[in-house]
Q: What sequence folds into this?
């Protein structure tokens, strides 16, 4: 019984099992992803761009990874106040590995193209696994106030 | 005669009072006399409080220690070989001999020190309220929740992970439910724990205190529909956030036949006693 290939990029795809007697369908949802395109995100540093109110919340429009899923330490492109800005993911709501913290909001820090953070201070606690990650995050870690 | 006896009584009472007063004065005098340091007129005498009296209640028998078996020791009802569970128990006891895993329940406040290669000083300390205990055997986990700098943080720790250096129970208490995941949708004051909290001492005998706190929730929508009977939550103050009509609507998802389902029964009392005696024996070696 060859089951049809399930493409996971569409939500709510109905799949029919090729059984002659019963016709049962089941739904397939997208892979639970941490931060992907069009997620609303919370900017945590004290930059003016991140903190001034706007009628639309900052959204992710591109994730710079091989698959379109962003976890802690990945760079993303945000649309804030009608402009495009790069940002670094600091914490997400999806549970990660065991012993790593899970935050109640998707936190992000605005970043320039060379990796320098836009703001000068991060009040929110930051996971310690950022230290070991590849990529020069030393300047972001320097402005962090507390680690979890 | 009666008047005379009354006056006599009064006289005796007043005598007694005078004697008591005298005695009291003598007591004060005697203690202060003893405590004066010899030849120290420049400094005032330091007040040393009298020693507290030790009350030994001989009427009460020696109270027994509270028996507690960690829930991850109880094997799930599966078709696996019981040898697997006994081997796992041996490994768990070996780890427990090195690291003291105290007794705690969902709702207690814990502080966990974990070895972190990324952290400064190599040790990462996190204080939080335990919202869930899950897993069986060596993969047993518990989730701690706290709110730091107005950001809610949850960490899922593995009990038997060698990275854990120390587990301290700062406050031992039980709540009305086993699973406090609804704290994510409750007001933040219910999840905040002071990281510099001093440990509250609790006696090893007697019942664990039950905190009958009913939590106030944020406005809906919540992450899960906690009012539904499948979660069976006692610890939320539903009267403040839900109308009786909504509560009735939630009861539509009730499955009242489940409590009569005999195939779902899993009586662990005998198994628990057997495992508890085994574990206590092994730990005392």
A:
């Amino acid at each position: 019984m060859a089951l049809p290939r399930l493409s996971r990029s569409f939500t709510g795809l109905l799949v029919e099992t090729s059984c002659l007697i019963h016709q049962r369908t089941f739904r397939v949802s997208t892979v639970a992803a941490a931060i992907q395109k069009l997620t609303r995100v919370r900017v945590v540093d004290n930059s003016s761009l991140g903190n001034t109110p706007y009628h639309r919340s900052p959204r992710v429009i591109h994730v710079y990874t091989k698959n379109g899923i962003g976890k802690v330490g990945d760079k993303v492109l945000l649309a804030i106040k009608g402009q495009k800005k790069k940002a670094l993911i600091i914490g997400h709501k999806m549970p990660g590995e065991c012993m790593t913290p899970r935050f109640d909001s998707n936190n992000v820090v605005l970043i320039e193209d060379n990796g320098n953070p836009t703001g000068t201070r991060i009040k929110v606690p930051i996971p310690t696994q950022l230290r070991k990650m590849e990529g020069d995050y030393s300047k972001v870690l320097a402005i962090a106030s507390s680690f979890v | 005669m009666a008047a005379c006896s009354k006056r006599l009584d009064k006289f005796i009472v007043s005598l007694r009072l005078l004697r008591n007063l005298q005695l009291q004065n003598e007591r004060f005098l005697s203690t202060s006399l003893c405590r004066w340091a010899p030849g120290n007129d420049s400094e005032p005498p330091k007040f040393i409080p009298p020693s507290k009296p030790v009350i030994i209640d001989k009427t009460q028998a020696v109270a027994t220690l509270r028996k507690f078996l960690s829930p991850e020791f109880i094997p799930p009802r599966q078709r696996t070989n019981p040898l697997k569970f006994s081997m796992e128990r041996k490994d768990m006891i070996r780890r427990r001999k090195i690291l003291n895993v105290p007794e705690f329940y969902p709702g207690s406040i814990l502080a966990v020190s974990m070895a972190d290669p990324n952290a400064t000083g190599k040790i990462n300390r996190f204080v939080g309220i335990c919202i869930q205990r899950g897993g069986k055997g060596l993969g047993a986990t518990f989730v701690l929740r706290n709110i730091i700098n107005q950001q809610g943080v949850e960490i899922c720790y593995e009990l038997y992970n060698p990275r854990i250096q120390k587990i301290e129970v700062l406050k031992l208490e039980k709540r009305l439910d086993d699973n406090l995941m609804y704290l994510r949708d409750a007001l933040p004051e219910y999840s905040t724990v002071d990281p510099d909290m001093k440990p509250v001492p609790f006696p090893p005998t007697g019942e664990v205190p039950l905190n009958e706190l009913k939590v106030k929730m944020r406005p809906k929508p919540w992450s899960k529909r906690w009012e539904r009977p499948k979660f069976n939550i006692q610890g939320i103050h539903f009267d403040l956030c839900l109308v009786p009509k909504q509560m009735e609507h939630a009861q539509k998802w009730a499955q009242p036949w489940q409590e009569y389902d005999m195939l779902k029964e899993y009586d662990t009392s005998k198994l628990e006693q057997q495992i508890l005696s085994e574990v206590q024996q092994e730990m005392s070696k």
Notes: The two ends of chain B are 79 Å apart (CA to CA). Residues 21 and 27 of chain B are 10 Å apart (CA to CA). Chain B has a mean pLDDT of 86. The beta strands of chain B are 109-115, 123-134, 141-148, 151-158, 164-171, 174-175, 210-211.
